[in-house]
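Sanity check

After download, print the first record. It should look like this:
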Amino acid sequence: MNQTYAVAGVSAVVLVTVLVGALGLRVSRTTSDFYVASRSVPPRLNAFAVSGEYLSAASFLGVAGLVLAHGADMLWFPIGYTAGFLVLLAFVAAPLRRSGAYTLPDFAEARLESRAVRRIASVLVVGVGWLYLLPQLRGAGLTLRLLTGAPGWSGGLVVAAVVTVAVASGGMRSITFVQAFQYWLKLTALLVPAVFLLLAWRADHAPAPAWDERPVFQRSTEVRTDATLRLTVQEPVRITVTGTVDGRTLRGRPLTLDTGPHRIGPATTLRFPPGARVPLPHAGGGRAAASGWANPLAAGREQHGLYATYGLILATFLGTMGLPHVVVRFYTNPDGRAARRTTVAVLGLLGAFYLLIPLYGVLGRLYAPDLLLTGDADAAVLVLPQRLIGGVGGDLLGALVAGGACAAFLSTVSGLTMSVAGVLAQDVLPALGIRHYRLATLPAIAVPTAANTLVSDLPVADAVGLAFAVSASSFCPLLVLGIWWRGLTPPGASAGLLLGGGSALTAVTVTIAGGARSGLLHTLLAWPAVWSVPVGFAAMVLTSLATRDRTPASAATTMARLHLPEATGGGGGRETERRGSGRKAAERHPRDPGPHGSGRRGPDPQGTCPHHSDPRDPDAHEPGPEPVV
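Expected structure tokens:
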């Protein structure tokens, strides 16, 4: 791809993001604007924003790479990513909005009246957020390296800097507009090139890919290695080599690679003839051929494929409801009904997006099979315009795709940074308010950025699957039982969070560290959701039954607040506004003290987060909104 066009596309997206974030200084006038957009985002706009931040690098680039490498079996990923919102719609969306919470720890403390449960939930939220941030930053580095030739570490720094400015400037209200814009940019960046790619495919007599055997080079293809690569050739192939192969240095000379393993030196160029089968990297050597951003530790899938599939389904179906950057957006809806409408719209928006992704995987199998050889399968979406169309048209479409990829990183990183910073500001920093929220933005993005540069040799891109597994094993039981079972107790919630989420986190961390590389143990640790989700539910239920005397006294009142419609239950922000006091309610801080002045949590009829009086809360002492300074 022409680097000038690619840089222009990426720069345009970055500039728009910074400008909209700066505009937030003008539109975010109150504390509530900054934290929850005054809980006034309409369903359609909120659905655009939710879709924009949810469709990350794993969706924009990783799923196409998975289809390229492994075929239709990988379509479980977009199915799981989308179906997770169906579960969220049925069990969580409206009650969670009626809780008036701003973060998952807020909900945990409001429902269970326990600071201990809040602390555990806070640690898990930050952990999931940082784990999800890692692959986004790694993906940004890979994309900028492929498009511009910049060092891999620079992409993460650029994204971190842009997101810090956008989030710290305008908070939730401005980020809402940024993410809505970025959804449509990502959809356009896939849809427009797809039309031209299909026309080029038809003009090439519409060849069909072979899924049951290694792909074939459709055209004479040149492959350049950046590092030492070990290949296993299963049938002899004659190529042209400039560089080092098996210790021999050749300068543009033909060479026949015989059956067996071969060692390709760094900075070596290999030219394969049309019709040659693609040799894949030798097992255990070189980079993995499979996609990395969405594939949760796929090594060993062939040994226990059915178990791995169930682990993937459970993690993606149940993990979505506990992702902090997804949950926080539902707090910006006016009421529970709007939250449901937002979720329904998100299902349609995600469905439209994921219809396009498999197309790029199929075309990548035909026209970019060399990416399997170098381990850059995730780059299929980026290189296809130049491969099929070429010329200025290919460069322009490539720049559009590059801008969409940049938007994928920025939107997801923005949402994750917002959610992690919100927890840090409430539970770590010594005081609350906009200034401290902005201060919390720095560690929220700095820690994963530093980790991205320090652990570049570890397969941390698999952290997407880890984040879903941990979320499904901890927050799914907490939300489902906390919303639908009055008998949940603080000890039960703590046990479930620690045993479910903690065991999932430990299992996959051991796998990432290389503690188990093969066999049944590896499979159990790499896909823990199959057993860790039942562990989380069982621990919460059994411990709660054993500690029935610890059931919160306000459990019945809280459950009524969660499930009764706003007009009936007296907790509706919209109905309150109609009675004339909604303007005041909408501008209050999301951690306003509830009506229980004694410090116990209880339902807040204003529709804000029920919270006890906290001397750190500026709104506990100052009437009205806090101006943005």
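If your output differs, re-run the checksum step. Summary of this record's structure: The two ends are 44 Å apart (CA to CA).
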